Amino acid sequence: DVIAGFLYAILILVVFHPVVDLIDNFNLTYKYAPLIIITFEMTAVEKVEEQLAGLRIARRCVPSEEPAYLLDIDTSTAAQPGSSRFVAVSCSNKSIRVYDRETLHFLREYSGHPGILSGVRFAHACDSVVFSACSEGTVKCWDVRSATRKPVQVFSGYPSNVFISFDVSCSDLIVCAGTEKVEKDTFLVFWDARGATDCASTSKEPLGVYSESHNDDITKICFHPIEPNLVVSGSTDGLVNVFDINKDNEDDALISTCNSDSSVSSLGWSGEDYKQVYCMTHDEGFCWWDMAQLDTEEPITLLHVLDVRESVCAENHGLHYLVGGLYHEKAGKLFLIGGTSTGNIHLISCSTDGLSLVGTLCGGHSATVRSFCWSLTDESLLTGGEDAQLLLWKPGAVERSLTKKASLKISSSVQKRVRVHNTSLKSRKK
C-alpha cells in the first residue's frame, strides 16, 4: 500500500503570482494565477511492479488425500478465446495432477510412475496435450481430454539414461531431455515430437544426442520462446550452453558457453526478442547474459550476483531461496521469484544496476514454495509448495476462503536428488 500510494502521489503546486494592476491613484490590487496541477504518469515498469505487489489469493485447490510437494507447474494455452484451460502439476509422490485453470477444481491424476518426475510441459499448439519426463528414462505424452489414464506417446531414451530435466520446442516439433551423469556420460537427448497423439501406445526412439558440452548432471533445459531451433541447458558443472539445433553436429551447434561458477538450478530467456539468458544456482546466485553481444567487443555479462540473499533487502522477512524467473513482455522487465521457509513469496526486479525487492506475497503458503507459473493473459500467478497447496494469485483479488493449511513435513524428492558439486569448475571461454 505504501508503494502504491507513493506511485500515485500527485504533486500540487499552487502558485500565487501577484499581478499588479495600476489603477486610479496607483492603488495596487492583486490577482492570483489559477491552480496548476502537475501529475506524474507511471511508466509501464512501475505499473507492472505495482500490479505484482498487489497480487492477492483468488483461489486455493482442495487439498489432496495424499499430500505431496508440488514441484513443477505449467498451464495450457486456450484453444479458443473463452475456452477452458488446464493446469498440470508434477508432485513428489510421482504423480501428475490436472486442474481447471480458473477454478482450480481437480480433474484427473496420472500416477504409478516408476521414477521421479522432472517436470511437466503443455504443448504450445494443443491445449490438451501435456508432457512429463521421468528418471526411469522416458518422456511421456498425455491427453488430458482422453478418458484413458495411459500415455498416448512414449519417448524412450537409451538404457542408461536417467532424465532429470526436459522441455518442448515452441513449435512442438522437438522434445529434449537432460540426463544425470552415469559413469562419464551426460546427454542431451532429442526426439521428433510430431504426431505425438496419433500413435497411441507406440514408443519413439531418439533422433540423436549431444554428449560433449556438459560433464555433469544437466539440471535444466529451456527452448527459446519464439525460435524453435534455439535451446539453452544448465548443469551442475556450472556451465550454461546455448545451442542451435539446426546445425549438423554438436560442435557447430554450440553457440555460446557461459560459466555461472556454481551448480545451475534454473534458467530462462529474457529481453527484447528474448536475446538474453539468465540462470540461478543451487547456492542462490544469479547470472544474466546478453547473447546479442556475442559478435561484438562488448561484454555479454549484464549482472552476476554471488548470493541474492545478501544483496536483496527483504526487511524482516528475509530471503532464503530463489525459485525461478519470469520475463514480463509488456514491461520488458525480468523479475525473480524467491521466498522464505515459512511460505512468504518475494518478487524481485532485475536491472543491470542490481536487484531490488518489488513486494512480498504473504498469507498464502505455510512452507517453502517450489514452483510457479506466470500468465501474461490475465496477469496472474500460480504457486505450489511443500505445504501441498496450489494457489492462484490475481491483482486485487479477494479470497473466498482464508483457511490456511499447516506445513506438511514430508521428505523432498528434489532434496534427495540434487547434488551440489564442490569440485573445481573448468574454465570455459565465453
TrEMBL record:
It comes from the Eukaryota. Gene3D superfamilies: YVTN repeat-like/Quinoprotein amine dehydrogenase. InterPro entries: WD40/YVTN_repeat-like_dom_sf (IPR015943), WD40_repeat_dom_sf (IPR036322), WD40_rpt (IPR001680), WDR89 (IPR039328). The chain crosses the membrane at residues 6-23. The keyword Transmembrane applies. WD repeats lie at residues 110-152, 211-253, 362-394. Keywords: Membrane, Repeat, Transmembrane, Transmembrane helix, WD repeat. This is WD repeat-containing protein 89. It comes from Dicrurus megarhynchus. The gene is Wdr89.
